[in-house]
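Human:
Class, as today's exercise, you are to examine the entry below, and be ready to discuss the fold:
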Amino acid sequence: MTKEERHSLIIDTLIKHESIMVSDLSSLLAVSAVTIRKDLTELEKENKLYRSHGKAILINPYINNRSVNEKEKLYREEKKLIGKAAASLITKDDSIIIASGTTVLAMARSIRPVHKLTVISASLQVAEILGSNEAIEVVQLGGSLRHSSLSTVGKYAEAPLSDFSCSKLFLGVDGIDMDFGITTTDIREADLNRVMMRSAQKTIVLADSSKFRRRGFSKIANMDEIDLIITDSHISDKLAQRIEELGIELTVVPEEIHDIRALAMVNADSLTVGEA
């Protein structure tokens, strides 16, 4: 077997299994572990996989901090559909918290309030999008500006939240690791997100499928602290099953949504809350 054939089989195996041990690849391809490590080193340099603790995985699980403008260019259609699904969960005269990130921006663009809606947000862009709608009362959190996300963080952003009780928190994240939890790249944002979670009856995570099996620097919460995850149809069946086994509700948004209200009805029973 040539080196090129081994590389092709390694990538095919990772696509099927997401990760594989060096020892298993050695047995599978009938070559030494030394040869496999050399192969993995070459493939990692080509950005085709990531090596971690004696195994290979398909993607680098660690996330760098990027600007909101850069992130907004990624997975646009998926974020748009996730945003529509999230917006459909807002009820009459609701009071909600919207965190920061590009997926919650997509949600903000889809919000059509029924009667009065109160929105608390750290995101300057969310406030700008919703501010022109007279049916929406926007409470903009103060604090220090986080330039990469155009959102506020710090103790002055956290302090007012103890005075509020909202039905739902819509939370964007940088990574979802089934063992480690949900994460962001900024420690100050993680602190603020945890305070937001305490001020909301339910935590709803909005994340396109690329966020799974990834970790940011700062942990926000464990998986068992999440009530609902909304993601796109590219999530693997294996991951979807594991999420549901943890007792977390999962909404997988199809590539085309013809009736977003029908999708909202799927979650109506589990997301019924009293007026905040």
In short: The CA atoms of residues 96 and 168 lie 5 Å apart. The first strand starts at residue 19 and ends at 21. DSSP finds eleven helices and 15 strands in the chain.
